[in-house]
Amino acid sequence: GGWPGPGPLDVAAAPRGNVGVADSAAGAVLRFADSTAGAGSSILPASPIQGDRWPLPEDLERPSALAVGDSLDPWYHPSAYRLYLVDRDGRRLRCYDARGRILAEIRPAEMERPSDGEARFGYVELDYYGNVYVSDPLAGVLYKLDPDLQPLATFPGPGPAEEAVVGPRGGGLRPRLGA
After folding, report:
1. Alpha-carbon distances, residue 174 vs 48, 76, 140 (angstroms)
2. How confident is the model at residue 34 (pLDDT cuts 50, 70, 90)?
């Protein structure tokens, strides 16, 4: 078996055992069941027969980053299954439910940032409360949004740490460890 799409860019695993892959070149988010991904013990080559596409709207373009919030995860407080997906070369972040319905959407231009320069969403992480953290490598900031993609904060923001973040790409939150 080979990879069913030509351009995987990001991966997210959920406690249910599913693995989601943002495949920019295929213009899709591919889902694999735990048995396809290796049953949690080792990674096996993915089979194009067993992977399926997340049912997303047709206007999805070049997905590049994703995070999955799973209600079965004891370290994820919201009782909902959500996909947070960056597409359009970082120009859009959407929240979808398990059926692919759009629940919320935001664009980098809507975010408060230290300068009026160009902005693009990078990678996405979720915390225990379902808050969404998304990097912006062009603006040099990290955004914090609520689960409905309403802006809460911009880091580093104004102040002495203004130059502390240069071109952030991704990050990692470990809710069970408090970080």
Report:
1. 31, 10, 22
2. low
Which single residue is written with the structure tokens 């994820």?
76
For residue 116, with 0-12 CB atoms within 10 Å meaning exposed, 13-18 middle and 19 or more buried, which class applies? exposed
Task: Provide the pLDDT confidence category of residue 159 given band limits of 50, 70 and 90.
Answer: low
Amino acid 26 reads A
Residues sharing a CB contact under 8 Å with residue 102, sequence separation 6 or more, in sequence order: 57, 94, 95, 96
> d(Cα 136, Cα 29) in Å, to the nearest integer?
21
User: How many helices (H) and strands (E) are present in the chain, helices listed first?
Assistant: 1, 12
**Strands (E) located in the chain:** 8-13, 19-23, 28-32, 52-53, 65-69, 82-87, 92-96, 102-106, 124-126, 132-136, 141-145, 151-155
Pairing of strands 8-13, 19-23: antiparallel
Residue 40 pLDDT grade (very low, low, confident, very high; cuts 50, 70, 90): very low
Structure tokens at 29: 């988010």
